[in-house]
Amino acid sequence: MRLRLRVLSVLLTVCGALVSVPAAASAELPGIDDFYRAPAGFESAKPGTILGERPVRLASYSELPFNAQAWQLLYRTTDFTGAPTTTVTTVILPAGAPPTGGRPLLSYQVAHDSSDPACGPSVAMRAGSGPEGVFTQSEMTFVDHALQQGWAVSVPDHEGPSARIAAPREPGYAVLDGIRAAQAFAPLGLAGTRTPVGLWGYSGGGLATGWAAQVQPTYAPELDLRGVAMGSPAPDPAAVTQLGGTAWSGLAVAVLASLRQVYPDVGRVMDAHLTPGGRAAVDAMSGQCVARAVASNAFRPTSDFLTVSYAQLVADPAVAAALADAGLGGSAPTAPVYVYSGVHDEIIPISTVDTMVDRYCRGGTPVTYRRDETSLHATLIVTGASDALNWLRARFDGAPVPSGCDTRTVTSTVMEPGAANTYVSTNSGVLGTMLGVPIGPR
């Protein structure tokens, strides 16, 4: 009975958070403590070097069981300017013996989408983190799916210590160095650089995954990167400007706030055109996780934030150059890529994903691309996960990938061969997780 009450309480909290998260909620987060502080002289360490480690207790939606061994690793990485920096990844070991042939490693990128470092997954995934990180907490379902395969999982804080949403390259460096740190962390029992590696992320997590795939050939060529799964990866940051006046208008403000932080020239242009309300909204982003950022700015028109239209703002040469620098598709990954996106996605226009895939294909990347006719942005993350998981499993199993590109428009990716069975089995496993069952192959 007590567990049922806890489940009901958490579900009510989650539903409430999707509508409104009170300003005081951020105080409930464990927050950024001294563990995150870079030690003196870290700059001389190689990218991926572990600088600190500690065990952590994870929880589903802050309060429900998530019975898997987990640690946080502080490690050296690189920012978008090429300078040394640090960030944290949460590494998780599934229950049970390693799969035959050794344990693969999946790096799963969540849609952090916040300018507040305390909203990173290393905070939101921890027990007692409160409702502020509800969007990140919901993605632990897919971490659970990966652990059920027997894979070790790395969940990096890919926005880094300054939580920059729109920074180019930096998310990719953070992901790849998190993989290096995980491979060197003895309790995971991995085979070092011989470890088969996969990448997976959706929306903002798909953007970070795309950056990792693009920079990997030159930044981390030693990794055995078997496959990359990207869902609705937000390849063109300028596309969020279409969200003004919609339920998702807060996402546009969040991206503008980050661009203002990353690119000084953009900051000067924006400062010249922000309304008093716009300045307040942009400044508030530094203390808001994505749920509250969306809820507090829902349906606000562009005129609430700017004295010009979004079209005029993005036409400014400094802003246009920054958006081009921050978008995906500038280079082609060498690892096989699986992309899935909704034809009628209300946040990420399918045309922007089509353009990115076309660039990858022309660059020689083997791409499997599924354009889903049924799902919207908030539903494809669920319905598309099973086919992505099956595709990743095939890469870890050594199944060959045809060269060239395979693009198909489908009714739903959950109707692809084997996807429905995986959907049922993995989500049945999640119910066991919420009852405290150790997470691993079942």
Question: Can you walk me through this structure?
Answer:
With 442 residues, the chain is α/β, with parallel strands linked by helices. It folds into two domains: 28-236 and 334-434, 3-Layer(aba) Sandwich (Rossmann fold); 238-325, 434 Repressor (Amino-terminal Domain) (Orthogonal Bundle), CATH 1.10.260.130. It is built from 16 helices and twelve strands. The protein has a ten-stranded mixed beta sheet with strand order 1-4-5-7-6-8-9-10-11-12, with helices on both faces. Strand 4 and strand 5 (84-93) form a beta hairpin. The longest helix is centred in the first third of the chain and has 18 residues, at 2-19. It is globular, with a radius of gyration of 20 Å. Residues 1-29 have low confidence and may be disordered.
What's this, in brief?
The chain has 2 domains: 28-236 and 334-434, Alpha/Beta hydrolase fold, catalytic domain (Rossmann fold, 3-Layer(aba) Sandwich); 238-325, 434 Repressor (Amino-terminal Domain) (Orthogonal Bundle), CATH 1.10.260. The chain is built from 16 helices and 12 strands. The chain has helices at 2-19, 121-124, 134-138, 140-148, 170-184, 204-219, 249-262, 264-273, 276-284, 290-297, 310-315, 317-326, 350-362, 377-383, 385-396, 419-434; strands at residues 50-55, 59-60, 64-65, 69-78, 84-93, 105-109, 152-156, 196-202, 224-231, 337-342, 367-372, 405-410.
List the helices and strands and how they pair.
Blueprint: H1 2-19, E1 50-55, E2 59-60, E3 64-65, E4 69-78, E5 84-93, E6 105-109, H2 121-124, H3 134-138, H4 140-148, E7 152-156, H5 170-184, E8 196-202, H6 204-219, E9 224-231, H7 249-262, H8 264-273, H9 276-284, H10 290-297, H11 310-315, H12 317-326, E10 337-342, H13 350-362, E11 367-372, H14 377-383, H15 385-396, E12 405-410, H16 419-434
Parallel strand pairs: 6-7, 6-8, 8-9, 9-10, 10-11, 11-12
Antiparallel strand pairs: 1-4, 2-3, 4-5, 5-7
